[in-house]
Design a protein that fits this description.
This is Chlorophyll synthase. The chain has 16 helices and no strands. The chain is an all-alpha fold. The protein is globular and about 60 Å long.
Length: 333
């Protein structure tokens, strides 16, 4: 007797399409967007400005980041069969054609909203917004698509992510409400390098698939301990430069807070370098119970260690980043 197989219904398909956009990743651009808005010091408590704020978060979150995730899954089907077989396409919940239409729809929505915002703001500021989103979408495509496929080598993949997820988002959010503040360019640059450092570590999760697919992640090329070391050097330099900037801008309180964040980071980093697989176990419960659904879990021990570190580092950097951005904005109010 044959057993009937239930075909996916409308709700199942909708969930699969949403999962293809990987909502967890949307929040990665929010700190830079918030920082750019705060540093402008020009947002007003009006319905118009609240709608602008919601629009820029929609543009770079669900639409921009969503497109990058969707197109990545489309071109990485074979890798995902190894690394993430439960994703919508390799699991069979979406066909390749359905995934393609997902990418096209989100791309057109992102272009449409980006152009609308740019024209609404007008002038140089509007041009910054339009050029930023179009450039970010282009990079998202060539990051995953042949023949360039920037993700094949860490020397092109990490800067691509840092630029589209951090640098242009910071500038766009600032341009939405004011002229680009000189200090914002510095903060956008620091967020660019912080994103590079974290992307380097995030590649731990796909080492086996990267080896099979010929992708040159840093973890594949130099091993886990050296990868941690390279990333930590970049992160610590970002904190150090932020402290120097806070001093040069006269933000005395921020200097102290940034240096405290740097010191705490170094303490945690030393533990990870001593044991790249299972150190900072005191963060295990926080990650798995408190943030498990938000940042995910991994079968790769080094990646789980990175996830624990990511929670601590992101909290420390986010707080300092937003405090400095707020102080910049207060100068222009």
């Amino acid at each position: 007797m044959s057993v009937a197989v239930r075909r996916p219904g409308f709700v199942d398909k909708l969930r699969a399409h949403l999962e293809l956009l990987d909502p967890v990743t949307w929040i990665s651009v929010f700190p830079c967007l918030a920082g750019g808005v705060m540093a402008s010091g020009a947002m007003q408590p009006t319905l118009h400005d609240y709608l602008l704020l919601a629009s820029i978060f929609l543009l770079y979150g669900p639409l921009g980041t969503g497109f990058s995730q969707s197109v990545n899954d489309y071109f990485d089907l074979e890798l995902d069969r190894v690394n993430e077989p439960t994703r919508p396409i390799p699991s069979g919940r979406l066909s390749v054609q359905e995934a393609l239409w997902n990418s096209i729809a989100v791309l057109l929505l992102a272009i449409g909203l980006g152009v609308f915002l740019g024209l609404h703001i007008g002038g140089v500021r509007g041009t910054v917004i339009i050029v930023s989103i179009l450039t970010a979408l282009l990079i998202a495509y060539i990051y995953s698509a042949p023949p360039l496929k920037l993700k094949k080598n860490i020397m092109t993949s990490a800067p691509a992510v840092g630029f589209s997820y951090s640098f242009v988002t910071f500038l766009s959010a600032n341009a939405l409400f004011s002229e680009i503040r000189p200090e914002v360019i510095w903060l956008a640059g620091l967020n660019f390098f912080m994103a590079i450092a974290l992307i380097i570590l995030n590649d731990f999760k796909s080492v086996e698939g990267d080896k099979e697919g010929g992708l040159k992640s840093l973890a594949v090329m130099i091993g886990s301990r050296n990868t941690f070391l390279v990333s930590f050097i970049i992160i610590d330099l970002v904190f150090a430069v932020l402290a120097w900037l806070a001093w040069s801008w006269g933000f005395t309180v921020a200097i102290v807070l940034v240096l405290i964040g740097l010191a705490l980071n170094i303490v945690i980093q030393i533990q990870l370098l001593r044991d790249p697989k299972s150190s900072i176990s005191f963060m295990k419960g926080t990650v798995e119970d408190g943030f498990g659904n938000a940042i995910g879990k991994s079968d790769v021990q080094e990646h789980n260690a990175f996830l624990r570190y990511q929670v601590a580092n992101n909290i420390l950097f986010l707080l300092n980043n937003l405090i400095v951005a707020g102080m910049i904005g207060s100068k222009y109010m």
